[in-house]
Write a structure and sequence with these properties.
The protein has 448 residues and is of the alpha+beta class. It is built from 20 helices and eight strands. The chain starts with a helix and ends with a helix.
């Protein structure tokens, strides 16, 4: 409810909040994937999230979900540069971070770190960054994050002041300064997150704390540190098991379906063809199956794809037979599906008008220098029904073949990595790759 209200620019009535406070069950720990992603989507709604969050907090619901929050509620700041109490400052930081989600590969970690970056404040004789990291790790585990992600979140909180402090107090041209940052931040992905968190924290503190001069110093420090790192490597295409290779050798369509508590795991093997990814994603869209993650790869003329999808509780879960039949028909042609998808997109847009709610525009990038046998197209944008279908269809209509894909939906943010070639199986030229990225971004911008 909170997520929908924030995303659609609505408020929750006092009567509803009181009812929820009296009747809402406790959240089981660790949280379900859906609960965690609802929170991420809630934070990612931007400035409208703040009013909704505070109205819920008035009913003590936040502290029921996250007991650590109680300590920072209405906690005054010790630094005069701050305009807000600790809790409100963290909300402001999260809202600022929502505008930076296109700049990082893990928007979910950025948003969570922004909301809790000052969680360690107000404890006597404890450094708030160190103590905040200590609090964050078990909290992240309770939220259902992996141990690896919990460690990253704890590290982001521990070092959330690192970049602005080093940039303004040390000589960033001194190699020892870069070595010091490298000793604290182990890879480019984490530096990317830390930079965005520094910007959000600084902007939320106030203009006196985050000046253009300071922002430029931090940016220069990040640039110099990145040059000393290997850079960010896109996710590699999945390796296939011997069982998958055996099934692929038959050359026939094969579908497996496993039902989990709140999701379906689906594996599809099908003869590779132009438009295959679009056809499969069209079936999922029409069946109201929400893609949360996917990995696809083509080998020896067979495409193998593994999907995790969430299902709409108001729609019957498809049987294996129905799903297989729908995919078979989609592989012949998707004309009837296109009409149904267009209708669903129109309905979504009609019912999710965001009056005054800022949503960062799509960002599409072409990467041509990392993978030798394909070109990488990265798409980052707010998730919507039929998004993967739109992306895959647009790429196919440009005469480009999708050889593999890594798809992730983190909260309300979609992050798709597509491995593409020309129709002869060769990587795209730099000019063609950049034109494809520009065309795809224009299509997604027009869709809204």
């Amino acid at each position: 409810m909170a997520t929908l209200a924030a995303e659609r620019g609505l408020r929750i009535s006092m009567e509803t909040l009181e009812h929820v406070s009296l009747n809402s069950p406790e959240i089981a720990e660790p949280w379900s994937t859906q609960s965690r992603e609802d929170l991420v989507a809630f934070i990612g709604a931007g400035t409208m999230m703040i009013d909704v969050f505070e109205s819920i907090d008035q009913e003590n619901l936040i502290s029921r979900w996250i007991p650590e929050w109680e300590h920072v509620r209405f906690l005054p700041q010790r630094n005069v540069l701050h305009h807000h109490t600790v809790d409100r400052h963290m909300l402001e930081t999260a809202a600022k971070a929502a505008a930076l989600t296109r700049q990082v590969h893990r928007p979910d970690l950025l948003l969570i770190a922004a909301l809790f970056h000052d969680l360690g404040k107000g404890f006597p004789n404890k450094d708030h960054s160190d103590h905040g990291a200590e609090l964050m790790y078990p909290l992240a585990l309770r939220m259902g994050f992996t141990a690896a992600d919990a460690e990253i979140l704890a590290s982001l909180i521990k070092y959330h002041l690192l970049l602005p402090t080093v940039a303004t107090r040390r000589n960033i041209e001194d190699p020892s300064t870069i070595d010091y940052v490298l000793s604290c931040v182990e890879n480019a992905e984490r530096l990317e997150l830390l930079h965005a968190l520094s910007i959000a924290d600084g902007e939320a503190t106030g203009r006196n704390a985050w000046t253009p001069w300071k922002a430029q110093l931090v940016k220069d420090l990040v640039t110099r540190t990145l040059s000393a790192m290997k850079g960010i490597t896109p996710p590699s295409q999945p390796e296939l098991t011997s069982t998958q290779l055996e099934r692929a050798a038959t050359g026939e369509l094969s579908v497996d379906l496993i039902e989990r508590e709140d999701s379906l795991e689906i594996e599809i093997l099908a003869p590779d063809s132009i438009g295959l990814l679009a056809a499969i994603s069209a079936v999922f869209t029409v069946m109201r199956l929400e893609v949360r993650s996917a990995k696809t790869r083509s080998i020896n003329g067979i495409a193998v794809s593994q999907w995790v999808v969430h299902f709409d509780i108001h729609v019957p879960i498809p049987t294996l037979a129905r799903l297989t039949d729908s995919i078979e028909r989609a592989l012949v042609g998707t004309e009837d599906l296109q009409i149904r998808i267009a209708e669903r997109i129109r309905n979504h847009q009609k019912h999710t008008m965001r009056s005054g709610v800022y949503v960062a525009p799509p960002v599409v990038s072409a990467i041509t220098q990392i993978v030798t046998d394909a070109t990488i197209i990265e798409v980052r944008m707010h998730d919507q029904p039929g998004l993967l279908y739109t992306v895959a269809t647009a790429i196919s209509e440009c005469g480009v073949d999708i050889k593999g894909a890594i798809v992730s939906t983190l909260g309300a943010e979609a992050f798709d990595t597509l491995y593409v070639t020309d129709l002869h199986g060769a990587p795209l030229s730099v000019d063609r790759a950049e034109q494809l990225a520009a065309d795809l971004q224009a299509i997604l911008n027009a869709r809204g």
